[in-house]
Amino acid sequence: MRPFDYQQAPDATAAVATVARRPGAMFLGGGTNLVDLMKLGVATPELLVDVSRLPLDTVAELPDGRVRIGAAVPNSDLAAHPLILQRYPVLSQALLSGASGQLRNLATTGGNLLQRTRCPYFQDASLPCNKREPGSGCPARGGYSRNHAILGASDSCVAVHPSDMAVALAALDATVVILGPGGERTLPLTELHRLPGAEPERDTVLAHGELVTAVDLPPGSHRRSAYRKVRDRASFAFALVSVAAVVELADDGGTIAGVRIALGGVAHKPWRAERAEELLRGAQPTETNFGRAAAAELDAAVALAGNAFKIPLAANAMVAVLRDLTGRGGNG
Amino acid sequence: MAELLASKAMGTSLRRVDGVAKVRGTAPYAFDHPVENPVYLFPVQATIARGTVSWIDTAEAEAVAGVIAVLTHLNAPRLARSDDAEYAVLQGPGIGFRGQFIAAVLAETGEIACHAAGLVAVGYDIAVHDASFTAGHPGQYTPGQVNGGAVPDTAAGDVEAALAEAAVVLDQTYTTPAGHNNPMEPHSTVAAWEGDSLVLYDSTQGVHAVRQTLAPLFGIAPENIQVAAPNVGGGFGSKGLPHAHVVLAVMAAQCSNGRPVKFALTRQQMFSLAGYRTPTVQHVRLGADGAGRLTAISHEVVELTSRIKEFAEQTAVPARMMYAAPNRRTSHRLVPLDVPVPSWMRAPGECPGMFGLETAMDELAEACGLDPLELRARNEPDLDPETGKPFSSRHLLECFTTGAGRFGWDRRSAVPGGRLEDGWRVGIGAASATYPFYRNPGNAARIAYGGDGTYTVQIGAADLGTGSWTVLAQIAADALDCPLEAVRLEIGDTSLPVASVAGGSSGTASWGGTIIAAADAFRKEHGDRPPAGAATQAAAPEDPEAGRYALHSFGAQFAEVRVHADTGELRVSRMLGVFSAGRIINPRTARSQFIGGMTMGIGMALHEAGIMDPRFGLVVNHDLADYHIPANADVGDVDAIWLEEVDLHAGALGARGIGEIGITGAAAAIANAAYNATGIRIRELPLTAEKFLS
């Protein structure tokens, strides 16, 4: 681990100003990923600006009915918050399926979004990796690729984003509030993370010094929602594939009025399944339609040597979640 | 037969005497031992799999404030012997595997040492390496012997002719991946030289084994090495003998201006420096007559070894004694590769070998139209098929009968895939377990009377967390016929009489038998009312009948699994092991050993696989986030029971080992249950979701 300086930020504006003017500075939230990466020599910040104690630790309803989650809210608190449990069960489920109780107590909302891939080649500084060392190559392609991307990957990178929470937020049409040196801006969560393209070293569209201060959830109840995580062991494992879905049925129950689906474990970002949504909107909630939508979404999937199973697995998981949420699928 | 020691303290579920200290965090492990003014070591590891270090520049590392020394092959002390390549640390520029030590930084703090280690610059002459393990590898050879000392190949009768004539033939290949010992406590050493004497706190399964290994390397008398290991946080074989890190720590302590050196491997480093279980490819052929009686057993194994040091896992050895068949063949072939050195991991040989054999038996049962338990009953041997000797105590079928009733074997669907519950396919499977009985020679114990009613009982044994502190005290109390409270047990230090390593499930029998002998000698010498200060030391007795019997433990293992119909995820909902292991000294710690082995078997069945990337010679999933062992949520209802018995041919203790047998049948039972649940037969561990995805 390289020696580094540490300071606690007095407020968000000061934190942003400090990090923005020091290229080697990074924000520190719960540290559950960053500190690991520092120990491994993968992250080598000169300065850590601790933002975990800023007063960004509340979950509150805004006047227009949206719910604002402070970036420093621990994952455990967020999962157990009454507003989240009542209106956004998919988010609570996703949070509780991630990591372990101890890690969720430390991990923050902002840090969860900005955690880095667990690709083993990325995490071992003795190996080439385009994400860690641009231009050095991607050994995951042609190597141990079981956990890697099937959608949106590039020649330079096949890593997946590891967050469960972000998948649920993508399905909920959440918005990210960002504070930069020039002021505040907002961004749909689905536009926060990037596909790797030729610049896999950039996980997100954030500029250096920009700080996520909050995540906003849209108003209303999203009770018909669920998160299904498929994983190798029953807890404390990253997703092979995960599905977050929010469904509204028409009043007569015969058709799908609204549907939002996001996939985890398949791409460099939480993958919003827009093709599937398009096919399902207005359609009858049947097994056939679910399967057709899943197939359409995964039509663009490209398997590596070790992860072809993810394509049928993602399709099966999507169908299973939609079946459970609509109470349908037994016929047709 | 030896006269059996009567049970008073033995057989009771005494709580661990070290439990409170461990729960409170006050029990010292190796790295915890306070030493004055320590220096911290962090190693530099080779990033190529084969070649030589052509240059190494330590200037930048040495310039870091707080760095005391940087050792490389250019300046490291010379060892007195360097014929064992694993131990020849920094003795030359050669590199035999990726991860090998090529330098070490000593510094005032661990953080400084780690930082400076990253600043050591290295150039290599890279040689072509080979880290690709395949069964057809042209370099494979027959080892002189396999681990444990058995011959590599055996043959009896005519297997080919028997298979050609058999009514039913099973011919399949089973594979197990590399397994990595991951004890909770990483491998750690604190080393200090005091003149010509060496003092070590080491996380080891045998303090005397450490001393005996290090003495010739450093050219000093064994008596000049003191090793202490009062508590050990698991070993599973990986601490059975010292690995290179101990040599490095001791060597570094020669370069630290007399200051003690502290060195703990990181979890990632353990994957290349602490030993591991070889992957295996097992070709199993079984021939049976129309009634399901085996006429032929053939178990042919290909596995790997490191090129620099041979380790030959005895994978096919259990097939030599499990079942009766007139025609038998076993063989072991090793593929030498430029990879880290494999070694012992819980039940070497039996663990992977019983997966192949017991999955094959399940397949044969179906091919014969027999219940799997009935197939075993029809092939129970009267004598050990390999040696022709009688078994001292073989109750395999009784284990199956007892377990079948308790587990609800009659609920097993005869047709695979017959049970669907809430979207999960449910199945039940079973497999045999076995482990040989080992007693190690060369033990001694000392007993002294304090005059205050207490007896000090000394033996340099180890407690890996298994309960030796507790059960040896129970044995001593009964051997001395005194209350448990009167026993002051001392273990885990080379200042105590010599003791064998805690390996091969041999500890309790070897050490306990020696304590019994010492107690006998003490009473003979000093009587029932000894004077204060009376003391006797005695060695373990020879067991004149030891060679007359085949001594093995047996077990029947049952598993119920649930395989998700949509995703293929497999969860083990229930497990039961019924064991026959001779006398049980302490039911509480014994149960913990059995269910611990079974739980590790869940890991073997579902999760554990070291993924070698042959391009780099590196196990890429080298941490616990990627190399999965079971989490609590993966372990459902796991229970272990045993037959009440005493082995009349296993010395005065009448106990065989229990530390390893729990893992030996677990993976096959789970795989067989998965087949019963789904109709999908998986012959390659681990049983991951994609293998059941339809």
**What CATH first level of the largest domain in chain B would be assigned?**
Alpha Beta
| Total domain units of chain B | 3
Q: What is the third-level CATH name, the topology of the largest domain in chain B?
A: Aldehyde Oxidoreductase, domain 4
Number of strands of chain B: 26
Largest sheet of chain B: 7 strands, mixed
Oligomer description? heterodimer
Question: Which spans of chain B of ≥5 residues are poorly predicted at pLDDT below 50?
Answer: none
Terminal CA distance of chain B reads: 57 Å
Between the first and last Cα atoms of chain A, what is the distance in angstroms?
Answer: 59 Å
Q: What amount of the residues of chain B lies in strands?
A: 15-25%
Overall description:
The complex is a heterodimer of chains A (332) and B (694). Chain A is α+β, with helices and mostly antiparallel strands and 332 residues long. Among the domains of chain A are: 5-50, Uridine Diphospho-n-acetylenolpyruvylglucosamine Reductase, domain 2, CATH 3.30.43; 225-326, Enolase-like, domain 1 (2-Layer Sandwich), CATH 3.30.390. Chain A contains 11 helices and 12 strands. Chain A has helices spanning 12-21, 34-39, 75-80, 82-87, 89-96, 101-106, 109-114, 165-171, 274-280, 287-297, 310-326; strands spanning 5-8, 25-28, 47-50, 59-61, 67-70, 175-180, 183-188, 211-217, 225-230, 241-249, 256-264, 271-272. Chain A is globular and about 60 Å long. Chain A starts with a strand and ends in a 6-residue tail after the last helix. Chain B has 694 residues and is an alpha+beta fold. Chain B has 3 domains: 38-47 and 50-128 and 182-273, Aldehyde Oxidoreductase, domain 4 (2-Layer Sandwich); 154-179 and 277-437 and 548-692, Aldehyde oxidase/xanthine dehydrogenase, molybdopterin binding domain (Aldehyde Oxidoreductase, domain 4), CATH 3.30.365.10; 441-542, Aldehyde Oxidoreductase, domain 4. In chain B, the strands form 6 sheets. Chain B has a 7-stranded mixed sheet with strand order 3-5-1-12-9-10-11. In chain B, strands 7-15-14-13-8 form a 5-stranded mixed sheet, sandwiched between helices. In chain B, strands 16-17-22-23-26 form a 5-stranded mixed sheet, sandwiched between helices. The termini of chain B are far apart. The interface between A and B is medium-sized, with 34 and 36 residues.
